[in-house]
Amino acid sequence: MRLNHVFMSALVVAGTAAITPLAAQTEAASTTSANPLAQADKDFVQAASMSSSTEIDASKLATANSEDKDVKSFAHHMMLDHTKLTVQLKMAAPHGVTVPKDNSDTAALGSLKGLKGKAFDQAYISKVGVEGHKQAIAAFEKEIADGQDAKLKKAAQDALPTIQKHYQMAQDLAAKKGLAQ
């Protein structure tokens, strides 16, 4: 009789253990689907990930296609900072929201790929450095103003000074290289 009782207890415990993960999955899935990400937040995740991905890929091109030490230094700085910003964005994204991994602006990168030397430098500084950061600032400011997800808004607030600094650095580099802005 005692052996039968132990066996039944083991079945109950095993059955409860098997059901618990399923219930947790259902609850997590329903929480995510019941609280979808607001459009402003979706737009921000897309824009921020594209901006950083483009910066990283364009900066890799700069290390290969530029001969200018100032441009290479700027590119190296952008690679480091935008890699960090991507990690911060992924950490701020709500559970179930995928931050695109490699969604660079193919048009921007395509316009740089065939260029070398000074022609590359000018296009890189203007399109990716100055214009890219101007667009990123607008996306981050929009998230701060219109975003609904508190963690994403905070990530945008925390990152905005870095993006603004990058914009200033790009403008300074453009002025140093004699590029009209």
UniProtKB/TrEMBL annotation:
Signal peptide range in chain numbering: 1-23
Record-linked Pfam families: DUF4142 (PF13628)
Keywords (A to Z) from UniProt: Plasmid, Signal
DUF4142 domain mapped to chain residues: 40-173
Coiled-coil segments: none
Keyword Disulfide bond annotated: no
Protein name: DUF4142 domain-containing protein
